[in-house]
Write a structure and sequence with these properties.
The protein is an all-alpha fold. The protein is built from 7 helices and no strands. It is globular and about 50 Å long. It starts with 6 loop residues before the first helix and ends in a 9-residue tail after the last helix. The model has no long low-confidence stretch (mean pLDDT about 80).
């Protein structure tokens, strides 16, 4: 299992993390809009990683797989969104806390999704079964522990990839 995002995917990951960070506050107001934003960014991530690993799939398939993975993680997602809604009970500061939690969870989810894709595509080069990909993603969506994940996320935000490639 990879400990961090491989160098060739770091530039695209930085773009994805920036996009999901910008869209993260939406989740404090609308779960449907949040899921749509996540599915769009994750679809682009899946498409990018697959292309760089010489596995071809169309964008509709990529978005469908991302929706399946998100639905598979729905228990955890619902828990995060419930916590976000509880922040609304705190007058004034609650909205900012909800927006921050939504953004943070989306960043971590996105990082772990890309890390999982890199694991799947590098381990099973050119032998990836698209039909089983969503199940593999759900099973592998663990990351390397919160501290290691956050360290790599910060490194990606600061350094990214020197080649400046993105989606």
């Amino acid at each position: 299992m990879l400990k961090k995002i491989p160098q060739k995917h770091r530039g695209a990951t930085k773009t994805a993390l920036r996009a999901i960070a910008a869209l993260g506050p939406i989740g404090a107001f609308s779960s449907v809009a949040d899921i749509a934003a996540i599915a769009t960014v994750w679809g682009s991530c899946l498409y990018s990683v697959a292309a760089k690993e010489n596995c071809h799939l169309d964008k509709d398939t990529a978005v469908g797989i991302c929706k399946s993975a998100l639905l598979g993680l729905s228990g955890y997602y619902v828990g995060c969104k419930t916590a976000t809604k509880f922040f609304w009970l705190i007058p004034g500061a609650g909205i900012f806390m909800a927006m921050g939690l939504s953004t943070l969870t989306n960043i971590i989810f996105t990082y772990r999704f890309v890390l999982t894709l890199c694991n799947i595509f590098t381990e099973k080069k050119n032998k990836v079964n698209i039909d089983n990909l969503a199940d593999n993603i759900k099973a592998m969506f663990k990351g390397n522990g919160p501290l290691n994940d956050v360290k790599d996320i910060v490194d990606i935000f600061i350094h990214g990839d020197s080649s400046k490639k993105s989606f």
